[in-house]
Design goal:
CATH superfamily: MFS general substrate transporter like domains
CATH class: Mainly Alpha
Protein name: MFS transporter
Membrane topology: Multi-pass membrane protein
Keywords: Membrane, Transmembrane, Transmembrane helix
Helix content: over 70%
Strand content: under 5%
CATH topology: Growth Hormone, Chain: A
InterPro entries: MFS, MFS_dom, MFS_trans_sf, Proton-linked_MCT
Distance between the termini: 59 Å
Number of strands: 2
Largest sheet: 2 strands, antiparallel
Subcellular location: Cell membrane
Strand order of the largest sheet: 1-2
Number of helices: 16
Order of helices and strands: HHHHHHHHHHHHHHHHEE
């Protein structure tokens, strides 16, 4: 007798979501390799170009909670398809720009809205609906989709920029985003009940379709969550997370390395190598999140990141020497390892509203990233070096470690509102 093992549809949904996240990550790889070419062609300062990156990072975060609410109302598939269309449009239009305000519109607004709709709120929605068993692990794997995108696109785009110019790289990103749309429409599903199954490891649950305005749903979740100490500790730590990853290293590592004589292609390859270790670290973090208290994990991750950033100014050089490779290893393992425990804590503290609340926590991540992207560019313009940007980021990461450990003071909580899970300290018996 032949026994056929049927793979649960949740894995298929997760695979499609992973590919969509890779497609969206394509654009997020472009600022690092395009800062110098845009500066050289148009004469714009690094501060001006970084401002466009900051708008993108800010909208990338602010869009997340509203996108999560829109997914609850209109479905994951529709929102994801429109988001990739916006990424393709924004990246494609840059080839005709000749003014810095057009860079702000294309890089900042259009692509910011598109990538923000496929941000970590998208991950939280997928894992929250489709997984009970292995939720932490799958969160780590999907989060690694962004790192995988960087790994794929950074070296490729860097070589395209050098050989064919930045416009060809922008068109490449646009085409890749469009190619993912048919797969989204074909294979992505909104709920397990759409296929007559339960969430993996869970029970049958018929989702209640929201009747209110999606924006009001997102704002109500923010209002209620903002009454809690846990929200501000999570948001504060995640803001620093964004400042010390996407905002600083993701945007400025290549030009900073170039300041020390390192070729752009070598620096881009090192940043892509961060993506390799990021994939390993994030998946491992998801596995650990299913087994270890998330507060301990966050405290350790941020402390490790802070120490590595404090060392970076002393090891930047013209070549990828062993000390730099050690930094790439440790920093890469820690890049977005913070995501699985943060998603888990949002669900622990805020229950059914966890994905939307995480969208707001993620907005703080991008707010920190936006500030760091512009601030580091201004530091470089004014001082001629990135050294103090690295030191400041290292100190902030150590502060984030302390904020994460402070969550232990509010570990035992009780509900304060329907759908908001655990939010304020429970009264002592």
């Amino acid at each position: 007798m032949i026994v056929r093992l049927r793979l649960h549809p949740a894995w298929s949904v997760a695979a499609v979501a992973f590919i969509a996240l890779i497609g969206a990550a394509g654009f997020r790889s472009t600022p690092s390799v395009m800062l110098e070419p845009l500066h050289n062609e148009f004469g714009w300062s690094l501060g001006t170009i970084s401002a466009a990156v900051s708008v993108n990072l800010l909208l990338y975060g602010l869009t997340a909670p509203f996108a999560a609410a829109l997914m609850a109302k209109f479905g994951i598939r529709r929102v994801a398809a429109v988001a990739l269309g916006l990424v393709a449009l924004g990246s494609g239009l840059t080839v005709w720009m000749n003014s810095s305000w057009q860079l702000l519109l294309c890089w900042g607004v259009l692509v910011g809205l598109g990538t923000g709709s496929l941000a970590l709120g998208f991950v939280a929605t997928i894992t929250g609906r489709w997984f009970v068993k292995h939720r932490g692990l799958v969160t780590g794997v999907l989060t690694a989709g962004g790192a995988t995108g960087n790994l794929i696109f950074l070296p490729v785009l860097s070589r395209i920029v050098e050989s064919n110019g930045w416009r060809t790289a922008a068109i490449t990103v646009s085409v890749v985003a469009l190619l993912v749309v048919p797969l989204i429409l074909w294979r992505l599903r909104d709920h397990p009940v759409d296929l007559g199954v339960t969430a993996l490891g869970g029970v049958t649950e018929v989702p209640a379709k929201p009747t209110g305005n999606a924006a009001r749903t997102a704002l109500t979740a923010l209002r209620d969550a903002a009454k809690t100490r846990a929200f501000w500790l999570l948001a504060g730590g995640f803001a620093i997370c964004g400042a010390t990853t996407n905002g600083l290293v993701g945007t400025h590592f290549i030009p900073a390395a170039h300041d020390h004589g390192m070729p752009n292609t070598t620096a881009a390859s090192l940043l892509a190598l961060v993506g390799v270790f990021d994939i390993v670290g994030t998946i491992a973090s998801g596995w650990l999140t299913d087994r270890v208290d998330s507060r301990i994990l966050l405290g350790g991750y941020y402390a490790l990141r802070g120490l590595s950033l404090l060392v970076l100014p002393s090891i930047l050089a013209a070549t990828a020497h062993p000390s730099m490779l050690v930094f790439i290893l440790f920093y890469g393992l820690d890049w977005v390892a913070t995501v699985p425990p943060t998603v888990t804590l949002c669900r622990e503290y805020f229950g059914a509203a966890g994905p939307v609340v995480f969208g707001w926590v993620f907005a703080s991540h991008q707010f920190g990233a936006a500030i760091a992207a512009t601030a580091a560019g201004l530091v470089r313009d004014q001082l001629g070096t990135y050294t103090w940007a690295w030191y400041g980021a290292g100190a902030l990461a150590l502060l984030a470690s302390l904020l994460s450990l402070m969550l232990f003071a509010g570990k035992h909580l009780k509900p304060i509102a329907p759908g908001l899970g655990l939010a304020i300290p429970a009264a002592k018996a």
